[in-house]
């Protein structure tokens, strides 16, 4: 018997008992929809959390912190130019360009960029504000593709040019106001004369004296990584600060102590950020850096922890939905067994006419698989409708549930839809296996005599 004959006969048999077939398919529909919707909620939590993390920074960026900046232990990192291997000895780690080159020689690393952080004060007319000044290689800063709300990136050749974070312009106050911190100020940094005081320990009898800087660009409001800082070229800022310290050394009440501390040579960088080529390689690169004795952190740490939690939630929710599909599988088995009793004579005639046992078995397996396939397809369609309703009607509950990065509470990726369709079909095959085997064991002569 050809496959086409089997398929036509199977479809005809399913349509012969329409009500029973529809009810059996309905059980599969409910089970499939329950599994897909339940798992879509867990996947939606993953997507929402990842989008939330992306608002706080780049998921492919690793932050390497300098323990020396906090007075921590020190180690030495030495590299061999002939390979990517890195040797660590426990004495004196230096956060300098040599370490950056060592990191950049690692596999899957696009580039590494160093930051030196300084506390400072900004002056805009009569207004004052505090900010963190980051000295950095502007050429590498360009590679970070920092989005700007206005203006352009600074350059090395410009006079004290700087990239200003969006929130910096809102962090000013009027020191002569009766309520200096209660005013809502928004300084136009690109069209205002701005001065920088590269120090946080000074005393003045009059208005502070700063060094003019030229803001050329403002970061976007949503990019929290860069919204609170001011970025300047490393060499230009070091020169600016040295000139300032030399001219204002008497303005610091603790100048003697400062000069004493400056005798100790500091590391060039307080922090190094490492850009990885692929988000899937971030943890691997991060583990390599940790094995070198470096203290690292990336947003994927939180993402991995969340994935473990969401995987458990998906398993629980999927298990709840699987109970419905298990009940549907029992319904399929019951339907097929009842079909055998009703078609006993038909099975006997098929055997007498020379139908092979495998053809009879394939016929019943095909009917069971079609019930699973039709039920799965309809269930997936209903799942998309339910997902749309959840996202449309219940999206306002996202904040209460902790989803701030996305309004989608339910997400059904293509792989979940196809996997559910295949799973429901497989359940149909498994549920129909016993009835199919039972049909092949019927005696042909007894089956013919059956009324």
Question: How would you summarize what this structure contains?
Answer:
The chain has 451 residues and is α+β, with helices and mostly antiparallel strands. The protein is built from 13 helices and 13 strands. A 6-stranded mixed β-barrel has the order 4-5-11-7-10-9. The protein has a two-stranded antiparallel sheet with strand order 2-3.
Structural features, described:
- This protein has 451 residues and is α+β, with helices and mostly antiparallel strands.
- Helix content is 50%, strand content 17%.
- The chain has helices at residues 3-16, 18-56, 97-104, 138-143, 234-247, 255-261, 282-291, 299-342, 344-352, 357-393, 398-401, 414-440, 444-449; strands spanning 61-65, 76-79, 86-89, 109-124, 127-136, 148-151, 161-164, 172-173, 194-197, 211-219, 229-233, 271-276, 295-298.
- The radius of gyration is 35 Å and the shape is elongated.
Features:
single chain; 451 residues; two-stranded antiparallel sheet; 13 helices; 13 strands; 50% helix
How do the strands and helices of this protein lay out in sequence?
Blueprint: H1 3-16, H2 18-56, E1 61-65, E2 76-79, E3 86-89, H3 97-104, E4 109-124, E5 127-136, H4 138-143, E6 148-151, E7 161-164, E8 172-173, E9 194-197, E10 211-219, E11 229-233, H5 234-247, H6 255-261, E12 271-276, H7 282-291, E13 295-298, H8 299-342, H9 344-352, H10 357-393, H11 398-401, H12 414-440, H13 444-449
Parallel strand pairs: 5-11, 7-10
Antiparallel strand pairs: 1-12, 1-13, 2-3, 4-5, 4-9, 4-12, 5-8, 6-10, 7-11, 9-10
Helix pairs in contact: 1-10, 2-8, 2-10, 2-12, 8-12, 10-12
């Amino acid at each position: 018997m050809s496959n086409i004959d089997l398929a036509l006969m199977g479809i005809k048999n399913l349509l012969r008992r329409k009500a029973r077939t529809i009810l059996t398919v309905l059980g599969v529909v409910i089970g499939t929809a329950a599994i897909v919707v339940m798992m879509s909620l867990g996947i939606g939590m993953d997507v929402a959390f990842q989008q939330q993390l992306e608002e706080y920074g780049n998921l492919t960026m690793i932050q390497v912190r300098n323990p020396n900046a906090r007075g921590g232990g020190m180690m030495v990192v030495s590299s061999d130019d002939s390979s990517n291997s890195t040797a660590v000895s426990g004495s004196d780690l230096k956060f300098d360009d040599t370490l950056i080159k060592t990191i950049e020689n690692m596999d899957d690393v696009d580039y590494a960029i160093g930051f030196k952080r300084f506390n400072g004060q900004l002056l805009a007319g009569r207004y004052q504000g505090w900010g963190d000044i980051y000295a950095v290689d502007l050429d590498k800063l360009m590679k970070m593709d920092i989005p700007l709300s206005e203006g352009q990136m600074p350059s090395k050749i410009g006079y004290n040019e700087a990239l200003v974070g969006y929130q910096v312009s809102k962090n000013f106050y009027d020191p002569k106001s009766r309520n200096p911190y209660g005013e809502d100020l928004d300084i136009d940094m690109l069209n205002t004369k701005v001065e920088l005081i590269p120090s946080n320990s000074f005393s003045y009898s009059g208005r502070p004296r700063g060094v003019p800087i030229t803001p050329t660009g403002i970061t976007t409001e949503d990019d929290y990584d860069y919204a609170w800082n001011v970025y300047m070229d490393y060499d230009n800022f070091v020169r600016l600060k040295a000139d300032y310290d030399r001219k204002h050394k008497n303005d610091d009440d603790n100048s003697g102590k400062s000069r004493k501390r400056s005798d100790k040579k500091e590391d060039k960088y307080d922090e190094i950020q490492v850009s990885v080529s692929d988000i899937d390689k971030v943890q691997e690169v991060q583990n390599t850096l940790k094995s070198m004795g470096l203290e690292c952190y990336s947003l994927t740490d939180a993402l991995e922890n969340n994935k473990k939690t969401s995987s458990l939630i998906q398993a629980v929710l999927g298990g709840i939905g699987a109970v419905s599909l298990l009940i549907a599988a029992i319904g399929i088995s019951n339907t097929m067994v009842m079909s055998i009793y009703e078609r006993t004579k038909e099975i006997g005639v098929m055997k007498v006419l020379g139908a092979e046992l495998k053809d009879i078995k394939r016929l019943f397996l095909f009917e069971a698989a079609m019930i699973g396939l039709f039920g799965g397809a309809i269930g997936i369609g209903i799942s998309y409708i339910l997902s749309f309703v959840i996202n449309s009607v219940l999206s306002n509950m996202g904040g209460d549930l902790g989803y701030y990065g996305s309004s989608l509470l339910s997400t059904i990726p293509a792989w979940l839809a196809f996997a559910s369709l295949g799973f429901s079909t497989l359940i149909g095959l498994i549920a129909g296996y016993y009835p199919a085997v039972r049909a092949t064991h019927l005696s042909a002569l007894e089956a013919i005599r059956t009324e």
